UniProtKB/TrEMBL annotation:
Source organism of this protein record: Nicoliella lavandulae
Principal EC category: hydrolase
Residue ranges constituting the Acylphosphatase-like domain according to the UniProt record: 4-90
Family: Belongs to the acylphosphatase family.
Keywords in alphabetical order: Hydrolase
PANTHER family found in the cross-reference section: ACYLPHOSPHATASE
Name of the protein in its database record: acylphosphatase
Entry superkingdom: Bacteria
């Protein structure tokens, strides 16, 4: 079972292409999972992959992958979920 991260990203992350950019990065890194907007204005990412690739994803997310996005904070924790087969935007 691969490690799974649950990442909540706060700031200007909705309506600026953040989910699309996150999916592109995940696909490039071979990470599977989901990315979705939440009602509170944050974005939730569930990501599975090897530790090195997850570290790369987190670094790129904190750097705001979309030019119009601004990441103010990100909470990150390991969680246990069934295996994903691809990366989806919800």
């Amino acid at each position: 079972m691969q490690p799974t991260l649950e990442i909540h990203v706060y700031g200007t992350v909705q309506g600026v292409g953040f989910r699309y950019s996150t999916k592109q990065i995940a696909d490039q890194l071979g990470i599977v999972g989901t990315v979705e907007n939440l009602a509170d204005g944050s974005v939730k990412i569930l990501a599975q992959g090897d530790y090195k690739k997850l570290d790369e994803l987190v670094a790129k997310i904190k750097d705001a992958p979309s030019p119009s996005a601004e990441v103010v904070d990100a909470s990150i924790k390991f969680t246990k979920l069934p295996a994903f087969t691809d990366f989806k935007t919800i």
